[in-house]
Amino acid sequence: MPLSLNGAHHSTNGNTKAELRRINSSSDDKNASDAGSVDPGNASHESESGVDESETGEEDDDEEEEEDEEEGDEEDEEVEDDYEDEEEDEPTLKYERMSGPINDLLKKDSVSALAVSNNLLALGTHNGIVHIVDLTGKRIKSYKPHQASVSDTEFDSTADFVATASIDGQVVIQSLSTNESYMFDMKRPIRTVALEPNFAKKSTRSFVCGGMAGTLVLREKGWLGHKETVLHSGEGPVWHVRWRERLIAWANDLGVKIYDTQSQMRITFIERPADSPRADLFKCTLHWQDDTTLLIGWADYIKIAHVRERPHTAAASGSSSQPPFIVEITAAFQLDCMVSGIVSNSLSMPKSKDEFSVQDTMPPSFLILAYQAPDTYGDEMTEDRARQARKTAERPELRIISHTGEELSADALGVTNYQAWSCNDYVMAEVDGPNSPGKSGRCYVVISPKDVVIVRPRDRRDHILWLVDHQRYDEALEEVEKLDKDECSADGDQSEISPVTIGERYIRHLVAEGNFVKAASVCPTVCGTDIERWENWIFVFAQSQQLQAIIPHVPTEAPQLGHLVYEMILAHFLVHDRQSLMRTIKEWPKSIYDVSAVIVAVQAELDRSPSSSSSRSLPAPDAVILMECLAELYTANRQYGKALPFFLRLRRQNVFELIREHNLFTDVKDQVLLLIEFDQELLERRKQEGIEAEASSSEAIALLVDHIHSIPIVRVVQQLRDRPFYLFLYLDALFKKDSQLGFEFADLQVTLFAEFATHRLIDYLRASTSYNLEAAYNECKNRDLVSEMVFLLGRMGNNKKALTLIIERLGDVHMAIEFAKEQSDDDLWEDLLKYSETRPTFIRGLLENVGAEIDPIRLIRRIKNGLEIPGLKEALIKILHDFHLQISLLEGCQTILNGDSSDLAKTRSKGQNSGFFMKSRTICVLCTQPLQRSPQDLLLLFLCHHVVHASCIDGMTDIYNHQEPSEGISSIGMLASGVSAKIAFASVVRARIHEGCPVCHRRSEGKLT
User: Fold this and answer.
1) pTM for the complete prediction?
2) Scanning 17, 545, 624, 724, which has its CA 20 to 30 A from the CA of 793?
3) In what order do the strands lie in the sheet containing 207-211?
4) Residue 666 neighbours by CB under 8 Å, 6+ apart
């Protein structure tokens, strides 16, 4: 959060390990000589051997490099400990130490000045060398214009001319593309220099410089050489100068002044605060934000000066001595640090895609390079060297300050040997426009004597990397999903911020922490369709015994993994969670694993399960689940026959449809008992539900009976021997279908009927002829089934014994009479009459049921005198009534018969004697020729109205061709002359035709259609 800066010390809340340690690590790789302290005041005493000397280095510094390297390592360890203790916020900017040849150049030298233009950097060093490099660190050009430290550098807008000032008192302007150059000896150390705008395009080649002499000098080229103009003097050294359009701003010991080159007038003076520290220790930084806004950073103060035109008033227009501009201080505030550099902030913090940056909604802010000054600068009056020495400095910070002076963010820079550098050793400059290939927008350059750091705005890629470095993987993955394709592919290797790379780091982190459930939920995003990555992570979970966490996320299609993975998961379920095993087997496609291998494993587990082999005992819950799994697996593997026993034991209601659909009748032959037991349970269940059902309507029995060719009868009987009721149902259904199918089990069926359906035994005995009469009689005798015994005795021919049983055991006269009728034995009737003589009840029964089989007179005569027979009168009356009724029926039938015969005779006569039409095209039915094919053809007409040629009838040829009278007949013509002759001829013809109408005769034999 932003902190109010009121001069109080505050902690840096924007430190980041990711960026700063990257800089530290690269600095550790550099030669330890970079850790040496360079005093700007003594820079002139360093090596002056030129460019070659800076590149080759000096052997005298080897010992110092080793000492500095040890100190640097200790410092890095302390820094890391400090970072671990702090809770870090995300930095606003990202930092990159410039690499490449520049690192070699700075091993024996240090940077003292910086200028930036058009992606080129001009680095002035304490050895008086100027290096021109680009933002990647590639050296473009190096030259040595001075013999002492370069105090300031300036590029023109085209980046063609470089102006340098040095404490050797010289100002050098050098063209990078031509041989044009200018050198001016100012006799006194020069601290700052500035070129006029559009220097390369103007012929005046003007510049302004100042230094320890206390004068600000403007030099411009004329016909006779450069002309020197003193703009200001007498107020102490000129520390900094900057030229923008027509305005020149400079700073000296008293303050900041602004000069208008067109009106040649000083337009303002901004006084330096009275309590400011020494100007030579804490430099003044001037930066033109635009043509009218000047940013001033001096020591711990920041002021913003705005230049505007002077209002046109009557008094002002009358006085020509007033400058055309006035300056207003729009903001002024004090910081808790020293300002080493200040620029306007055009960079924004990374935001999500749909959010606005800070600068879109807030007023402009400033970017300052902050220097934390030590508590004391040493006691120069003491003789103690330790007290005289300068105290160790803190890390420089890059802060974003709002227009009100509020700190928005602060990042500490891990520059090399920062403890030795002062406020004046740091420089910051702004780079405008495209700053490197593949990177666009503004950036900044910060230098220290041994480092060049590129400061860029953090984009969403950097935000993602920061989240990853701080193990905030969830947020990183969300941000990656929001990235556009251009953002993903920009700036280098995109694999570093790919969902896969981040996700794998996230998974490894979660696995290390033991959060396997969360790790598994990330796997689909990370692995996607990569089969190998999926399998690797699944095996990692399996090795950690956390397979159950990732199983819900394992894909079964797109991608489809190796069958070993799926079999391993099923094996895990088999051991630990059998409910999930069953659910998974039902849900997963069977093509993704080896069904046969899984069947073997499940079957082995079922064999070890209690109550798994007994068909009658209730299986244990685990056994039930395993059987469900096996049934599903066998069905999926098209082994329906092997699945059938499990379906039966599990009481699946669709088992009959399964048998019929897949023709499993041969598999049923060994599962008959299970099948019938299951079917009977279904019947009992229906009865409990109030649905009427009979055992004889068993679907299992019907299936067995309908497929006796696939399910042999003998095999079924063998399996049902121990369950006689089921056997009875089967044999009964078999007998109903065909009485001969189970003839060999007829004796067994008699016993079963006697036990389970006694009332139907008599029907079976009457319908079947395959059973043994003696065995059946003994079975009925043992069970005292009299009616059945009577029937069997009658079938065996022992009618008298059978009649005796009826009379003595049953006393049923009607049954006795029916039995006598069935046997049609006169002796049996005699025995019945003889037995009835002394039994009035039987006599009455005989009288009431007497019929054609026995003469009533015969029965009446056998009645003894004096025998009282209840209902005798009624019985006799009935006999007489039945006799008269019989006579009446006979007479009525005779009358009806006579009438019907007369009607039929008349109908026949009418039909035979009636005529019919015959056409000329009518054909003979026998030869299919026209009847009137010639006038000589003799046609025969029958009473059935069939007309045929006489020649088509066998035996009629001689009559047809005989022309003379024969057997009393003179000739055909004579025969035709009279009716009697025609009748005689017809009689001769009729005698020759034995079968009647040949057409009807042949049709009856099937020879004619």
Assistant:
1) 0.56
2) 724
3) 190-195, 207-211, 216-222, 225-232
4) 641, 710, 711
